[in-house]
Amino acid sequence: MIKAERINFSYGNQNVLKQVELAVEKGCFISVIGPNGSGKTTLLKNLCRLLQPQSGEVKIDALSIKAYKPKMLAKKMAVVHQEIQNTFDFNIHEVVLMGRYPHLKALQNESAEDLKIVEKTMHLTGIHHLRHKSMSTISGGERQRVMIAKALTQEPDLLLLDEPISHLDLKYQLEVLKLCKSLNREKQLTILTTLHDINLAARFSDVIILMHHGEIVKVGPPAEVLTSELIRNVYEVDVTVIHEPHLLVIPH
Amino acid sequence: MEIQLKRRNNFIKITLLLAVLVIMAIFAVTQGNVKISVPDVVKITLGLDDSTTIKASHSFIVMQVRIPRILLSLLVGGMLSVIGTIFQALFRNPMADPYVMGVSSGAAFGATIGILFGVGGTFLGMGMVSMLAFIGAMITILCVYQLARVGGKVSTTGILLAGIVINALLSAAISFLMILFHNEIDRIVTWTMGSFGAASWEQLGLIFIPAIVGVGYMMTHARELNAMVMGEDEARALGVSVDRLKKVLLILASLLSAFAVSVSGIIGFVGLIVPHFFRMVFGSDHRVLIPVSFLGGGLFMLVCDTLARSLLNSMEIPVGIITALFGGPFFLMLLQKHKRRSEGI
């Protein structure tokens, strides 16, 4: 699906990504974890071409990402960013409708089919009842779901999310991740997300990527990556890892 | 379907706006030092005037003075509002106005030079002062653009900062020139407050094509502008070619503002408040916002200019004073009302 081949990225002379290699299989739910400054967000931005690696290459379906036209790429992959700008107010329906942009020609109006897709994604993400409200009047969790609905409206194969739950309370954190999980299971949507919460990453991901100082330390199923030894090395925190009833990392 | 209903509603609102605009324009032709009746105005414009019933001077006033002036104010008002809309979207900044790129001070500086050195004559139907204003504006835009460019990309914060600095620099230079040559202060001040007093068919012909083509082109990018308002990264993720869009629209919008300034002087406020006003009424979708800003900006400018030339018998008031004096309080009132509504009070 998406592959990174030995990518290096630096801001000025500060190397943020070093020889990063990864391959994401179709239908996977992958979380990228790591301490602040470990390069998670930079990796994500390289994967969606917001940043371009100084060396190495990102490939989507075996084709270099550089070869994709902007709209082509937007049909393959959608991105939900960490921050949402809200200078001028749109209502929820208008925002979700923007997701159809890559499918439309320059002056083409949205067809009934496009509007049907918008309706569908709004139902799927549970925001349909909010559609007439404006972005500034809804809660953070609702706003995040609107952004996910917009991304889904692009009808991508791959969804990238950058810290989708970092500003949300526990209820909404679970709600957003559950939504992603169900999209992953039911729609075979491939998901790659950066996360801060190790326990939530363990609970929802098929594969976890652990990053440290711009390098991938370990890739694998949660039980293989989240060991007390690796976590001590990377986060400099002593933890106990419990495996029953499900994997839980408890800091000392 | 609700969206069809919304589209129809918008269509009705735009048609209404257009109707009000036409009625106001006809009314404006009748107003001024010489009052001319509506039937006479209709006859004259349709070419049905015969010298037995209508004075030749009336004919001249309608055809050569008032109609070009009204059309020019409509066009400039519309342009300034659309440019304001575009800049506010590109910069995601509600304070952006048509003059962000230093166009106003550049033009004022050019015009000041023209006035002080008494350059006369015309060029391409444009008075030399206007021409120098246009050149001044263009040079400033280029400077601001170059200053804000980092490695092939234009940074929006860079433009805002460079614009402010160049503005301050040139304003100081103008003030200095005004002190040195204080007997010309009146003309310079009048110019910096805007006026359609010199309107002519030539001026109209000069800006008509750039205005229509420019605004039309901007309209075709309404959807991209919507995405830009949500943030540049958002727009990129949706497949918008952000850098190219920014470059083209920045240049086009500043070019249009230079045209507007060169025929009317600096008219503040219109490009700032008209887009906000219509955002409150119609929402932020640029597919609707751009056309209504154009019509609404034109209407607002027409009303202000009609007041400017008919409020005082003895003299004309610079139109920029009217736009701020009347537009300001009206806008504040609306802002309060809107705030209360969105807070649910």
What would you say this structure looks like, in words?
The complex is a heterodimer of chains A (252) and B (345). Chain A has 252 residues and is α/β, with parallel strands linked by helices. Chain A has helices at residues 40-47, 70-76, 92-98, 112-124, 140-153, 170-187, 198-204, 222-225, 228-235; strands at 2-11, 14-24, 29-33, 55-60, 63-64, 77-80, 158-162, 190-194, 207-212, 215-220, 239-242, 248-251. In chain A, strands 6-7-8-3-9-10 form a 6-stranded mixed sheet, sandwiched between helices. In chain A, strands 2-1-4-5 form a 4-stranded antiparallel sheet, with helices on one face. In chain A, strands 11-12 form a two-stranded antiparallel ribbon. In chain A, helix 3 packs parallel to helix 5 (140-153), helix 4 (112-124) runs antiparallel to helix 5 (140-153) and helix 5 runs parallel beside helix 6 (170-187). Chain B has 345 residues and is mostly helical. Chain B has one domain: Orthogonal Bundle (ABC transporter involved in vitamin B12 uptake, BtuC). Chain B has 14 helices and 4 strands. The longest helix of chain B is centred in the N-terminal third of the chain and has 36 residues, at 56-91.
Write the layout of secondary structure elements.
The complex is a heterodimer of chains A (252) and B (345).
Chain A: E1 2-11, E2 14-24, E3 29-33, H1 40-47, E4 55-60, E5 63-64, H2 70-76, E6 77-80, H3 92-98, H4 112-124, H5 140-153, E7 158-162, H6 170-187, E8 190-194, H7 198-204, E9 207-212, E10 215-220, H8 222-225, H9 228-235, E11 239-242, E12 248-251
Parallel strand pairs in A: 3-8, 3-9, 6-7, 7-8
Antiparallel strand pairs in A: 1-2, 1-4, 4-5, 9-10, 11-12
Chain B: H1 2-30, H2 38-46, H3 56-91, H4 103-116, E1 122-123, E2 126-127, H5 128-148, E3 149-150, E4 153-154, H6 156-180, H7 185-192, H8 201-219, H9 222-229, H10 232-237, H11 242-264, H12 270-282, H13 286-310, H14 319-342
Antiparallel strand pairs in B: 1-2, 3-4
Helix pairs in contact in B: 1-3, 1-13, 3-8, 3-9, 3-11, 3-12, 3-13, 4-5, 4-6, 4-7, 5-6, 5-11, 8-11, 9-13, 12-13, 12-14, 13-14
